[in-house]
Amino acid sequence: MKRIIAPILLLAAIAAGWYAWKTQTTESRKDSPAFHGNIDIREVRLGFRVSGRVQAVLKEEGDAVAAGEVVARLDDEPFRNALGQAEAQVGQFSARLEELRNGNRPEEIEQARKILAAAEATLENSRLVFERQRRLVGEGAVARQDFDTASSAYRTSRARRDEAKARLDLLEAGTRAEQITQAEAGLETARAALAQARTTLADTVLTAPEAGVVLTRAVEPGSMVQAGSTALTVSLLNPVRVRAYAPEPLLGLVQPGREALVYTDSRPEPYHGRIGDVSPRAEFTPKSVETEELRTSLVYRFRVVIRDDDGLLRQGMPVTVRMKD
Length: 325
Known about the structure:
The protein has 325 residues and is an alpha+beta fold.
């Protein structure tokens, strides 16, 4: 009999202690005004900045992700090809600019000089023939046709000499500044295209910006996606905030930086937080705040950042906020 009575007395003592604690907690809660609100966890919709075919989705709904962790990939073969083409264009423009800066080769200039010397020798010979024919035609010793032929050959030789001299002058003058400027601009354009190709290739890998939990998985491998479309939705772990509302008469209690206690229906102990921002504009309380008194009241929204989140708080969960003494 004693064995039965002892456990009963122990349970009664525990129940009495719990009732006393509950009563004390309830009374302490009544001492300070209550503000009602909901858990507000940030979400981010992840999507590729480029269009393409999904190669892999590495996370399932409910999986945890770390900051910077890869969550999905696109087929990058077309983007790698574009990158190779951009690299080739940079090499082409770079070689052309180097060629222009170095100027003409000495061998080309020497060849042009020899061509000019040959043209001058031919011109001199044509001049001598022309002078001889002009004297003879005046004496009637040669036909007029022979003189015309010598005159034409002389003019042709002179034109070739002038052309050879102009070619040598051009080679010796080197590359024009305008050509170098144009080549430099072309090289910068090619480099910009290369940088864009590298960025586009990097955009085929989708990473999580912060630590969180995957809420939805909207694409599967093999599907085609457009740039900006949502591939996965991630709920961020930090910060966990409360979006609560204060009526105008109690607005003086809600000050940025003040400590607050956040109560939920899922556990008796409160969460600890600090008030962040307070809205400067009044609004009507959303219907998601389930209190009859506040539902039609004009209130001010404020946020509480929770410091000791235990992973049990969920988006939209109703909470009660009380200011900490």
